[in-house]
Write a structure and sequence with these properties.
- Residues 276-332 are annotated as: Disordered.
- This protein has 8 helices and 8 strands; from the N terminus they run αβαβαββαβαβααββα.
- α1 (3-19) runs antiparallel to α3 (100-106).
- It is globular and about 65 Å long.
- By secondary structure, it is of the alpha+beta class.
- Helices cover 30% and strands 17% of the residues.
């Protein structure tokens, strides 16, 4: 189910609850019962590739991890607010009503990226995290903006909005298409602190090393996202959210926190990777013809066409020869 569909359904459900008193599942005397909130059915996200590399789930994965040593490791904790789709029609601090219309546009063609550990809670239990944009590490902000600048669907993972104030509600994400690729820190003052970012927990997994790169002692390696992989590799990077809390909704709190860890690995002395088991599968690249070769083939086809015509012309001549030979025999 597209996230937009769930957003719309949750919006209707929440609106219905508000219309009869806004007290969730409580029955109000003389006003009937609010719509029943359907429970989600958790299921794995299709094609999820991220597993906890620090706690292997199979003997083979554990054996592979033991061949490496962490030459650099960093861990940081971040603070955010957690909302469910029920909260789309609730005003702050309990809801994200101010961003409802903008989120509908953002997620119009996006499948829900998943929650923690590749689980999709489904329905109204799908959760979204919100952070002050200036509290997101600079490397992550630059990654989001770079994707946006290249017209890739960065907002599908991280939706950046101008902060909603009062009745002013943003209906579209922030556009950075016209801004330079690298924005100096001094130019971000007074800008990023007026923005927020909303994302599903599953979006984090694509960028985890960037969250903890600064001050790690191996900043450049963790910032090189090409080194990041679900499996341990020599001079490669592994990362995972090692801990996260849940908002205490029963007492009206939305605050939560999550911790990210990333390690730079090096193969231990004397250890070797089994080429058949440990090495990544070779990529099968489709060979593309160059423009020159394509033109050459076109010319060859053009040359073949006259030859075909010549063969067609030769056929009547052969028939004429046979007819003449037969006539000579008759004369004899």
């Amino acid at each position: 189910m597209k996230l937009q569909t769930a957003l719309a359904a949750a919006s209707c459900l929440a609106s219905g609850a508000n219309a009869i008193g806004g007290l969730g599942g409580m029955k109000i005397p003389g006003m009937g019962s609010p719509p029943k909130r359907p429970d989600g059915k958790p299921a794995p996200v299709p094609n999820w590739k991220w597993t906890d590399p620090f706690h292997p789930s199979t003997p083979e994965a554990a054996k592979r991890l033991n061949k490496f040593a962490a030459v650099c490791s960093n861990e940081k904790t971040f603070h955010a607010e957690e909302f469910l789709l029920d909260d789309l029609s609730e005003k702050p601090p309990h809801g994200i009503l101010g961003y409802r219309e903008g989120l509908k546009k953002v997620f119009s063609k996006l499948e829900y990226p998943g929650s923690w550990d590749g689980v999709d809670p489904h329905g109204y239990d799908r959760n979204l995290l919100m952070m002050a944009y200036d509290q997101v590490p600079l490397a992550v902000r630059e990654w989001i903006e770079d994707r946006n600048r290249k017209e890739e669907d960065a907002a599908g993972l991280y939706a950046v909005f101008e902060r909603a104030e009062g009745e002013v509600r943003p209906t579209a994400t922030v556009s950075v298409a016209a801004t330079p690729s690298v924005i100096p820190i001094k130019d971000r003052a007074g800008v990023d602190d007026k923005r927020i970012v909303i994302f599903a927990p599953g979006a984090l997994y694509e960028t985890l090393p960037l969250w903890v790169a600064e001050g790690s002692g191996c900043d450049s390696e963790l910032l090189d996202i090409s080194k990041y992989s679900p499996k341990p590799n020599d001079l490669g990077v592994i990362a995972y959210p090692t801990r996260h809390t849940t908002a205490k909704r029963r007492i009206g709190w939305r605050a939560m926190e999550f911790t990210v860890r990333a390690d730079l690995l090096k193969l231990k002395r004397g250890e070797k990777l089994d080429p058949e088991i440990d090495a990544p599968a070779p990529k099968v690249e489709k060979k593309e013809e160059t423009a020159v070769k394509t033109e050459e083939k076109k010319e060859e086809k053009k040359e073949e066409a006259p030859k075909t015509e010549e063969k067609k012309e030769e056929a009547p001549k052969e028939e004429e020869k046979k007819t003449e030979a037969a006539a000579e025999k008759d004369e004899l």
